[in-house]
């Protein structure tokens, strides 16, 4: 199936309705009492400052979504397109609301975005999709001219840590936006006859291999398509996750997410790092 | 140093004894790891002792109910509000909080605060319809139908603040200037008592110029020793810990049930609104508290949690609740200015990538 999931966020963020509470809070933040909130760690905050960005506030978008029902054919490999749509649409709602909050703050971008799914106690088919990040404003426009915002006029988004963000900017790249692709796939059950035939032998179960390939390919190509729409040079920090959620063993969501980037200048050099052997235990950042 | 007994008002006698003993013995405890201890030394801080604050409270609800169960949330023959089932999520073309959140009550219907379900939700032809019950946050409870929940919200908020204050009182009695590495814990004892506790390491500035003035509360930070040192090297110092707590309630209404029972994909407006309201209110009170701590403070690093639960209302009906807590450390410019060079040194650690560079493990 080549059909694309719903299109990305609309460009006009001022049309997104924010709850009155959020609007008041954001207006106060914008009116420049210096206080801002962020969920960056101290190190990340300092690095983001050093990269030439000023945090302006924590931004958050949330959507509680009822994921619909879809019956799978027991013995068939198939994409559960209704579930795919749900997972995509709900994430997009959360992301767009977060972007709208950042837009209200006059932000150029959002760093350290976390996109989480939380199944609530309220019911099995209900999940909360949350996007949280820290909105930042660039001290100066990018060296290439233009704006830090992406070609849709949206604040850039990035799920990179402050450390990675710093490194990226140092090396002459800028994030454009988080891109994602998802595919909820039902892997066929094998009939008793097929199972009997392979009993006791070590053979590839082509049906399963094929299903897993298909599903991942779909997710990744959708992510790719989003990056192309942003005119990105590439995608960094891609995670390819398989999330079983709550649909039982044979239905799984394959989710690809990464940060699309563009070059800021021709050369991409970064100072040679010094090697250190920390005397702290490995678990400490 | 002021008399310990004075600063330790409200702290149990056994803790007062321990603090007095700790102060007099000169043995200084700390919860810091060795690297953290070394790090804070670089920021000119030294540990004074570990400090603890705790309060055990009972949590309950006043008798009463919101009364939204009676008639308000049933489908009924409200003529004129029928329309074709749209199947879509209203207002989501731009990804908005679905329509209706600010819509006023329908003509001549309902009391203040009631809203009609957005038109898109009206079922086909036979007068399905219903009211959307409002979301109420703890700040506005007094004038709402959820006054029965107010003592609960107040008790939780008090407990969070009180355990923190008791910990700070111990630190003050030890003559500390601040407390860092604060961790909080909540647990339930036999299901009736709820313990809220805070634990941290009290520290003192080595340089007498930065010592705490008598009568002022010590500063506090949920940051680790390493983080405090990093902040100090960039010229920031912690001013205190701010808490933002909120409880939001909503009676499970017709619209909610409708959306949950559906076979199609859709956003559950009421729940989105509930969780958004809880978080927004908590963030508002966090900012208020942070502003009080830092004046024109500069940074709040924070962590947050959200818990949802439900409580039977009347009959089969339920009240849905969301409890949000945001905790943040307020950092302010330290008068001493940055200690470090201010430039980042790029290093490549020779350790396995167990501590991921990205935030994924956070």
Can you walk through the features of this model?
The complex is a heterodimer of chains A (285) and B (362). Chain A has 285 residues and is α+β, with helices and mostly antiparallel strands. In chain A, 29% of the residues lie in helices and 30% in strands. Chain A contains 6 helices and 10 strands; from the N terminus they run H-E-H-E-E-H-E-E-E-H-E-H-H-E-E-E. In chain A, the strands form 2 sheets. In chain A, strands 2-5-4-6 form a 4-stranded mixed sheet. A 4-stranded antiparallel sheet of chain A has the order 3-7-9-8. In chain A, a hairpin with a 6-residue loop joins strand 4 and strand 5 (126-138). The radius of gyration of chain A is 22 Å and the shape is globular. Chain B is α+β, with helices and mostly antiparallel strands. Helices cover 25% and strands 27% of the residues of chain B. Chain B contains 7 helices and 12 strands. Chain B has helices spanning 4-7, 13-25, 34-42, 150-173, 225-233, 254-260, 269-294; strands spanning 45-58, 115-116, 131-132, 136-137, 178-189, 193-205, 219-220, 236-251, 266-267, 299-312, 318-333, 347-349. In chain B, strand 10 (299-312) and strand 11 form a beta hairpin. Chain B is globular and about 65 Å long. The relative contact order of chain B is 0.16. The model of chain B is unreliable at 72-129 and 355-362 (pLDDT under 50). Chains A and B meet through helix 1, strand 1, helix 2, strand 2 and helix 3 of A and helix 5, strand 9, helix 7, strand 10 and strand 11 of B.
């Amino acid at each position: 199936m080549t059909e694309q999931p719903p299109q990305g966020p609309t460009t006009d963020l001022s049309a997104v309705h924010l709850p009155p509470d959020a609007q008041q809070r954001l207006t106060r933040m914008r009116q420049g009492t210096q206080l801002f909130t962020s969920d960056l760690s101290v190190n990340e905050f300092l690095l983001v400052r050093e990269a030439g960005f000023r945090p302006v506030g924590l931004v958050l978008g949330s959507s509680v979504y009822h994921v619909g029902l879809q019956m799978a054919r027991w013995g068939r490999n198939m994409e559960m397109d209704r579930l795919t749509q749900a997972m995509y649409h709900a994430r997009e709602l959360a992301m767009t609301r977060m972007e709208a909050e950042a837009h209200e703050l006059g932000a150029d971008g959002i760093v350290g975005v976390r996109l989480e799914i939380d199944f609530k106690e309220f019911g099995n088919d209900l999940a909360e999709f949350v996007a949280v990040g820290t909105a930042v404003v660039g001290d100066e426009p990018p060296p290439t001219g233009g704006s830090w915002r992406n070609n849709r006029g949206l604040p850039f988004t990035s799920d990179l840590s402050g450390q990675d963000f710093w490194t990226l900017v140092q090396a002459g790249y800028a994030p454009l936006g988080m891109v994602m692709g998802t595919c909820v796939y039902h892997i066929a059950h094998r009939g008793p006859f097929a199972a009997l035939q392979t009993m006791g032998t070590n053979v590839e179960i082509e049906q399963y291999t094929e299903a897993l390939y298909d599903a991942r390919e779909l997710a990744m190509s959708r992510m790719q398509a989003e990056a192309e729409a942003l005119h990105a040079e590439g995608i960094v920090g891609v995670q390819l996750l398989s999330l079983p959620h709550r649909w039982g063993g044979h239905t799984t969501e394959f989710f690809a997410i990464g940060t699309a980037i563009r070059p800021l200048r021709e050369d991409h050099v970064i100072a040679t790092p010094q090697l250190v052997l920390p005397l702290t235990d490995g678990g400490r950042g | 140093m002021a008399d310990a007994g004075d600063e330790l008002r409200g702290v149990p006698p056994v803790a007062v004894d321990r603090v007095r003993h700790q102060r007099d013995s000169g043995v200084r405890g700390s919860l810091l790891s060795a690297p953290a201890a070394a790090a804070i030394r670089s920021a000119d801080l030294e540990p004074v002792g570990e400090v603890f604050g705790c309060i055990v409270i009972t949590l309950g609800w006043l008798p009463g109910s919101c009364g939204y169960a009676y008639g308000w949330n049933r489908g009924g023959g409200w003529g004129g509000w029928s329309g074709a089932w749209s199947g879509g999520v209203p207002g989501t073309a731009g990804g908005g909080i679905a329509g209706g959140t600010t819509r006023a009550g329908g003509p001549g219907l309902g009391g203040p605060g009631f809203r009609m379900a957005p038109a898109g939700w009206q079922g086909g032809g036979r007068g399905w319809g219903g009211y959307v019950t409002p979301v109420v946050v703890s700040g506005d409870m007094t004038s709402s139908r959820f006054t029965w929940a107010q003592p609960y919200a107040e008790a939780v908020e008090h407990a969070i603040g009180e355990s923190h204050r008791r910990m700070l009182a111990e630190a003050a009695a030890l003559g500390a200037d601040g407390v860092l590495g604060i961790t909080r814990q909540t647990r339930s004892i036999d299901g009736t008592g709820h313990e809220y506790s805070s634990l941290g390491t009290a520290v003192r500035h080595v340089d007498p110029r930065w010592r705490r003035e008598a009568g002022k509360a010590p500063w506090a930070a949920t940051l680790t020793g390493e983080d405090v040192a990093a902040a100090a090297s960039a010229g920031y110092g912690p001013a205190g810990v701010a808490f933002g707590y909120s409880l939001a309630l909503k009676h499970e209404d017709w619209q909610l049930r409708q959306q949950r029972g559906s076979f199609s994909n859709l956003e559950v407006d009421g729940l989105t609104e509930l969780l958004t309201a809880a978080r927004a209110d908590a963030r508002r009170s966090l900012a208020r508290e942070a502003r009080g701590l830092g004046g024109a403070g500069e940074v709040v690093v924070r962590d947050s949690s959200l818990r949802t639960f439900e409580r039977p209302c009347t009959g089969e009906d339920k009240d849905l609740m969301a409890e949000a807590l945001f905790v943040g450390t307020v950092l302010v410019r330290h008068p001493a200015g940055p200690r470090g060079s201010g430039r980042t040194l790029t290093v490549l650690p020779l350790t396995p990538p167990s501590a991921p560079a990205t935030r994924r493990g956070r």
